[in-house]
Amino acid sequence: MSQFIQNQIFFLSALAFIMFLPGRFLLLSVFGKSRTLATFEKFVFSFGLSIISVDFIFFAYSGLKIAINKLTIISGILALIVACFAIFKLRSAKNNFQYQENDEGLFDFSKNQLRLIMLLLFLTFFIKAAYLNQTISPGSTDMGHHMYWSKLMVENQKLPDYEGLPDFIVGEQTMFSAIAMVSGLDFFSAFPPLVLLLVNILSILTVFILALRIFREKDIAIFSLFFLGFLYAVSAPQTKFVSGGVIGNLIGNFFLPLAFYFYWRAFQFISEKNHETKQDSRAFLALAVFTTFGLFYTHHLTALVFLFVFSFFILFFLALNFRNAKVIFKNSFKIFFSPQVLPVFVLGLLFFFFIFTPNYVTSSAVNTAVGAPSKATRAGLSIANLRATLGEARFSLGFFGLLLIFLSQKRKNTGQLLIATWAVILFFLSTKPDLFFVNIPSNRIGNYLSYPLSILGAYAIFYIFRSESAAKNNLIKLGFLIVMGFALIEGITDSAKAIPARNDYTELVQTFKSSDYLATHTTAADQILKDHNYIAGDSWMKLFFMRGYRYPQSRGYFKRYDDATKPREMCTLTMISNPGGDEATSCFSETGTNFVMVNPRFDSGQFRKLDNFDQIYISPEIAVYYKNK
Amino acid sequence: MPSKRIIIFIIFLFVISSAYLFFVDSRDSNPDFRKDWWIVYFTDPKNSSLDFVIENHSDKNYFNYDIFDGNNRVSGGGVIIGKGETKIIALDEKLGQIENKKITIRVSDGLELKEIYKNFKD
């Protein structure tokens, strides 16, 4: 029990120290104690800025060839906190915080609104925790891969080279390494999914804030929380991604609205002639640039989505405000070429290209994401697919909200245009990827749509039922109840269906037990082959060995060996499927494989009839064979 | 300040979720909690040692083992192993010459049979 309490204290303390304090002090150095950001905004954004700050501390250590360990991480964060505090004190002494906006009132909710927000937050946490109750133990494939790199950072005390693999980006793993180093917690615990749960909740709260700021209507923000937090709380990209360890998407869905928020606050009055390029705009643009670099260091797909949305937003905005183009460029120039923004931009570029460059910035990685769709799964989703992915209610209301914005006089409004562009570009990226020359699984892009559509759906609901006459009209009230009832039933049913049956984790425990056995009884000179098809949690096995990302070798999903677009090696397949055949014999010789781990219910007969294999380990779900000659 | 109340409420919900999910994870990853399984393995997989281990995570306590040289039973015995316990069974001295043989160890809990083997055939 004392160990449990100790783990909780270490975990929560590490979380506050690594994921909250750096960002909080960064905001203090930027805005001082001004009310430019409301308390709630400071709370939510501190997490995002902390994650990015810690990334840059890792990169700086890597560039300076300083070991990344518990001591240096704590020192680095403390140094950042002290530096930010010193800047705050210096600027306070010079009365340098001349921010004028005070929007704390926007976050003053009525008692009923407060009760509703708390109820929605409670239900959001409750549904997510109910799902994680069945899936919290380590076992998901993606999480296993990511935690390998995180553990490697902890063991080697430096950033990994990812063995040249372009699919892994350092920002997906740094915070887990930092938490593991500082708290001492094992990766085989609940801490990785809990960190992701926090990130997921923060992404929802960022959307809540974005909706509140842009529409300046508390009810729209609350409805956004309803559509994104409470309803569809489990389906992708929500809690399923948390337990599945889809880290890049989750952080991306947090950083994307966060970056949009900062850009929007920097440029919201940009087309106004009397717009003064106040500190606000420059500070917000500096934070926006900082967040953008954080996004590019974390997830290439979200970064690509950001580039598309942001580029088209600029195009649409200029087209709609063509008459003010001169003023817009003049104001933008003043904001960008300022002492607040330019250093952040230049430093970001220096880090990105000279200190630590993500592996995906290579021609091969870019080539795999750009071009004509190479598979049916990349050729675009149908509307029916999209409706199923996003939920009928959210899809319909979201697009109705989009239509309302197009028809409204406020379509030139920077914020509303941003939300509309976000939804439109994602819609075409997921349904017509060939228009953008993008070659990425379409359903992965389709999932992103749930964020802008939740805001647009909230706007639609608010728009339809907002007037006082509507509140008095029984027919309209009935309509409201029917729409909300439909959304409620569909959203909750979606979550209820997704919650899996109780799992006793016997299979997972057996995988880990056998991995521990092999890690103890083999050396790096031994080559192990395991099966991914029938062994639970097999991607976590590599954390027992720590002998390379591709160790142990893996027989992948059968369909992967039959990929017309990408010829695969066949040894991992044949060494298990037909270990006595000529092809397998040659593979065993080439690869030096001498241990094979399979599920005996599916793959044992072929080994049992061979004299050159010993069955050295047997449990209900795992059999291990040793090639004795 | 309503927004401060929301912040405190979010922290409260996260702390509760964290404590609960840490508890669930530590309970579920316990090899003995609500689980019924056992393992047999050689203490050394690579050399000629035939010492083996029975690791019990089931509610059964008595395990019977038989040693076979090909199809001939050459030795055997029974052991009592409690849930969560492990027992090493040393065999080498009992078997004598093992060259050019396939030695199989069959372990049963009365219902289920598991076997491991080493092949010394040329």
Description:
Chain A is mainly alpha-helical. Helix content of chain A is 64%, strand content 4%. A five-stranded mixed β-sheet of chain A has the order 2-1-3-5-4, with helices on one face. With 122 residues, chain B is an alpha+beta fold. Chain B has two helices and seven strands; from the N terminus they run H-E-E-E-E-E-H-E-E. Chain B has helices at residues 2-28, 92-95; strands at 37-42, 52-57, 62-69, 72-80, 86-89, 102-108, 113-119. The longest helix of chain B is centred in the N-terminal third of the chain and has 27 residues, at 2-28. Chain B is elongated and about 85 Å long. The chains are: A mainly alpha (629), B alpha+beta (122). Chains A and B meet through helix 1, helix 3, helix 5, helix 8 and helix 24 of A and helix 1, strand 1 and strand 7 of B.
Structure at a glance:
Chain A is mainly alpha-helical and 629 residues long. Chain A is built from 28 helices and five strands.
| Total beta strand runs of chain A | 5
> What's the average pLDDT of chain B?
91
Whole-number count of domains of chain B? 2
Pairing-aware structural class of the strands and helices of chain B? alpha+beta
Global shape of chain B: elongated
How many β-strand runs of chain B? 7
Q: So, CATH architecture of the largest domain in chain B? A: Sandwich
Measured by DSSP, the beta-strand proportion of chain A falls in: under 5%
Percent range of helical residues of chain A = 55-70%
Distance between the termini of chain A: 49 Å
Number of helices of chain B: 2
- H/I helix tally of chain A: 28
CATH class of the largest domain in chain B: Mainly Beta
The overall pLDDT average of chain A reads 91
Radius of gyration of chain A: 26 Å
Low-confidence segments of chain A: none
